[in-house]
């Protein structure tokens, strides 16, 4: 969990003894976790009155703000009556589920948000299953009840069925329900109630959740569930105090993941106060603390009393399902736009990432200047690439590949649960395409002309599917998927059907050439874009690859129209995002990523090289 590093107060704060409750918001993507956390913080007095606060303060990093999604879990605290409540906002996207799972080990209760229209979605099921297995008793928050198409009561029945299906105990089944309009900071115990704030939710929390028991006199034990980095104080280890009292400057024992023990010292101790971290001399049992002094500590290790060093059970970390090769940029434009371009740079950066990103694996690739990087999904890896390019890196990335495993002598592959929502008219084409990609339909309902279908489908089949789906449903379809499990390998599936247009020249694209080419497919570049031989400049409407010359000027023979560009009407180019580009490329292609550009290219730049490679 990232801390609010810029705002660490290095003043000493003395904490008075309070009852401690830690709560996490969990849900499917976009069901309103960050919005609710924001309003809980505001109404819980987390901000000083003179403080200027952004909307969605918890989505604090640049990528989160831009994309409107939460990537890293984050904590903040409020004081309500005589309680200190730590609130942890978690990401909803399936690629970040391991982080959510770890966060749940630090909390006493979860607020399970469910959209009053959408109802439970794949990630709702995943996070609920995990929280039930940990013995937590969730509070269900039916959010967005202001939506015209809300169906809160139906959604509650669906949530109840989900609890039953996931084997909830009677106690867990007896979950409290709160209705909310997170965006307006309003919660209600009954739909009909009038309410202007979140106090019904605060009250429900206090009624339902037992504060953390006072184990302050016992020997210290606390597990590191997250780490972050601060330029001033270095590596920060974060966890909840399971037992005992933690003190600044205390000598401790680190119980390592390999079973060994090592001495350590807490050089700084911080707790959350509002959205800041404040330095304290002592933190209470149950509280979430951040500590400096442990340069190479790993997630899952336990900080313990040297007299009584007992490790907490290791954390299980989900295995990666998808990998991409991160290669040194060797395109003709290498080194022109980025600061960090060598294998060494990439290696150091990946090593740094590994310290806090436990779901990530990195291996070197023999005979190649690059690394095979594996993670929990496309977004997990593309966020890393996006962060790297913002930091000044250049690299090339290969087509995402799923990780195939052999289990009991059988070839197994990751499969996803996919939910699509499409207007009836498009359901035929979507069913056909998913069938071709070896999807099996599990359920289909038609609700007023909108068809909702559930599929189980190989992860591999979904690479590149989204762009087709958007085209096929004219942008009206919604799709959502998350990793389900490993299943027996389903054999070949159809990948990209279309070829590409490859530049045969170096130079700069000109409008006249692009205008001529646009009848043959979709163009990805603009006039004046610098091009090189082997760069992909468009998609061909046919299945073969086409070598073209985007730099070809118009001959000046026709006096009447020369210098007159009237006839040239260019269709705006399809400029792909990083994710789109990664989904698009075939296995003989690469995405070239620099701080300024995302280019597509053939691995082999000249036609001769491609022919030779094709023969071998
Ligand atoms: N109509 C309506 N919209 C809401 C409500 N609460 C949140 N939203 C909107 O839902 C969208 C998603 O909200 P977020 O709070 O970012 O959702 P999230 O669950 O944190 O999303 P991730 O972190 O990406 O999983 C935003 O556009 C919010 O404005 C609500 O009560 N009513
Ligand atoms: Mg969020």
Radius of gyration: 27 Å
Please state roughly what percent of the residues sit in beta strands, choosing from under 5%, 5-15%, 15-25%, 25-35%, 35-45% or over 45%.
Answer: 25-35%
Our count of domains comes out at 4
N-end to C-end Cα span = 48 Å
Q: Label the overall shape.
A: globular
Count of beta strands: 36
Question: Which kinds of small molecule does this entry bind, naming each only once?
Answer: guanosine-5'-triphosphate, magnesium ion
| Regions with little confidence, pLDDT below 50 for 5+ residues | 1-15
State the CATH class of the largest domain. Alpha Beta
Describe the sheet with the most strands. 11 strands, mixed
Task: Please give the share of residues in helix.
Answer: 10-25%
CATH superfamily of the largest domain: P-loop containing nucleotide triphosphate hydrolases
């Amino acid at each position: 969990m990232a801390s609010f590093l810029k705002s660490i107060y290095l003043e000493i704060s003395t904490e008075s003894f309070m009852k401690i409750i830690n709560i996490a918001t969990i849900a499917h993507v976009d069901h309103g976790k960050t919005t609710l956390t924001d309003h809980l913080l505001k109404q819980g007095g987390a901000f000083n009155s003179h403080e200027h606060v952004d909307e969605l303060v918890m989505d604090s990093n640049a990528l989160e703000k831009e994309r409107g999604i939460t990537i890293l879990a984050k904590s903040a605290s409020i004081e309500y009556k005589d309680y200190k409540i730590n609130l942890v906002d978690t990401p909803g996207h399936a690629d970040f589920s391991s982080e959510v799972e770890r966060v749940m080990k630090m909390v006493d209760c979860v607020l399970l948000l469910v959209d009053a229209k959408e109802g439970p979605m794949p990630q709702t099921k995943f996070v609920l299953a995990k929280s039930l297995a940990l013995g937590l008793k969730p509070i269900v928050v039916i959010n967005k009840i202001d939506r015209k198409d809300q169906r809160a009561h139906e959604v509650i029945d669906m949530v109840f069925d989900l609890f039953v299906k996931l084997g909830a105990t009677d106690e867990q089944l007896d979950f409290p329900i709160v209705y909310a309009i997170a965006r307006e900071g309003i919660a209600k115990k009954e739909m009909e109630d009038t309410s202007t704030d979140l106090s019904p939710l605060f009250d429900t929390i206090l009624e339902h959740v037992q504060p953390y028991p006072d184990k302050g006199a016992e020997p210290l034990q606390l597990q590191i569930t997250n780490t972050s980095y601060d330029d001033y104080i270095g590596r920060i280890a974060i966890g909840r105090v399971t037992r005992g009292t933690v003190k600044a400057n205390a000598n401790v024992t680190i119980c390592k993941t390999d079973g060994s023990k090592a001495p350590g010292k807490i050089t700084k101790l911080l707790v959350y106060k509002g959205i800041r971290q404040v330095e304290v001399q002592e933190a209470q049992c149950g509280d979430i603390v951040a500590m400096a002094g442990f340069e190479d500590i790993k997630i899952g290790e336990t900080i313990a009393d040297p007299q009584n060093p007992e490790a907490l059970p290791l954390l299980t970390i989900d295995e990666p399902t998808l990998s991409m090769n991160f290669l040194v940029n060797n395109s003709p434009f290498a080194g022109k736009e980025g600061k960090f371009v060598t294998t060494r740079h990439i290696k150091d950066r990946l090593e740094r990432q590994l310290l806090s990103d436990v779901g990530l694996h990195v291996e070197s690739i023999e005979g190649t200047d690059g690394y095979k990087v594996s993670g929990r999904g496309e977004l997990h890896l593309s966020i890393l690439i996006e962060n790297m390019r913002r930091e000044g890196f250049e690299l090339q990335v290969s087509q995402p590949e799923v990780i195939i495993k052999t289990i009991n002598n059988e070839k197994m592959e990751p499969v996803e649960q996919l939910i699509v929502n499409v207007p009836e008219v498009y359901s035929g084409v979507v069913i056909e395409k998913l069938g071709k990609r070896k999807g099996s339909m599990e359920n289909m309902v038609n609700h007023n002309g909108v068809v909702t279908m559930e599929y189980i489908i190989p992860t591999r089949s979904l690479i590149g599917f989204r762009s087709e789906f958007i085209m096929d449903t004219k942008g009206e379809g919604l799709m959502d998927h998350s990793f389900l499990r490993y299943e027996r390998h389903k054999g070949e599936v159809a990948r990209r059907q279309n070829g590409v247009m490859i530049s045969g020249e170096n130079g700069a694209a000109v409008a006249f050439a692009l205008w001529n080419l646009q009848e043959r497919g979709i163009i990805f570049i603009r006039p004046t874009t610098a091009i090189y031989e082997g760069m992909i400049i468009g998609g061909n409407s046919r299945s073969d690859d086409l070598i073209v010359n985007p730099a070809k000027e118009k001959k000046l023979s026709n006096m009447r129209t020369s210098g007159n560009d009237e006839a040239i009407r260019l269709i705006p180019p399809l400029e792909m995002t990083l994710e789109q580009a990664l989904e698009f490329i075939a296995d003989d292609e690469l995405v070239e990523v620099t701080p300024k550009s995302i280019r597509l290219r053939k691995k082999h730049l000249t036609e001769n090289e491609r022919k030779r490679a094709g023969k071998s």
